[in-house]
Give the backbone structure.
Amino acid sequence: MPRIPNTSRQTLQLLAALLETPTAWRHGYDLSKQTGLKSGTLYPVLMRLKDGGLLDADWEESDQPGRPPRHIYRLTPTGIQFARKHLAKKSVTPVAMPLGAQA
Amino acid sequence: MKELSLTRRLADGLVRHAGRMLPACRREKQEWAEAMRQETDSISDDRQALGWALGCVFASYAERIEAMNFVDTAFVRGVLVFFIVLEAWSNFFATIATISYRSGHLGVIRVMSGMMPGDDYRPFIPLMNTIPWWDHALWVSAALLYFVAAALLFTRRRAMAFPLFTAGFGLAIAGEIGSWIVMSEAGLHPVVGRGGSVIGRIIQDIPEIYLPLGIIFVLWLIRRRRTTPGAPV
């Protein structure tokens, strides 16, 4: 498993959002709306969390016929522990940041 | 069948491009490419879908650049170490010259004259008599931090090189500002040759300002690479 070192503010924001409902599967776009992270930031973070074994990803069949399945995400048990440990150190909220507040 | 708008078609094309641009070394490349595409497809608003797709392109290029690993290589680290040692030497220079002059070991400072403007140390005698030791202490501390940062680049803890070098640069700048204040108060500015054109000043400042800033940027890239969750190390 790759080393899991420090975490960026964006990663912590995403972890906080996922930790709100740790057992629920979430869509990328919903996570983006909740955290304010754009897809350009969100996907690299999701990829790294998954590479590190902190995130589960699966496909969800659409309830609308003819629509393709969507990727869904939730924290693994290791990810939940990791998120709790790191979020306890810093006060991070998963809410969207005001425009221009993101790095 | 409803015809897709130009914006939607553009979003679709961009997100497909993003999928192709994901680096081959990325595990489950196809899965992420498909995830991006389906997520874009699920966004009902065309303009939002376009924004999402543009972000996906950005993410893919960022991943591709990350996968190239061109900053955290032995070659780049070697070049960095060379420039960091040069910087450390330039921070030691004034202190060694001053110690040599004040202790009467003029042989050393004559050798160093070859690296001074005009190949002559004598115009700098007023400076060496004026600049206080605390200023030298700042430069020497900066140089020592630089050496530690350079040494760390050979270890697995190379991410630490960034804060150490940055702290060293802060000390060096504080030393520069201190010396400027002291020189201004003593009316010694002309002897350091700070006059001249703007271009001349910019060229003159390269070793002191731009080179360390360049080093800091590359060290930051190395640190970023090594402190991102899941990044290869």
Q: What stands out?
A: The two ends of chain B are 50 Å apart (CA to CA). Residues 6-68 of chain B form one domain. The mean pLDDT of chain B is 84.
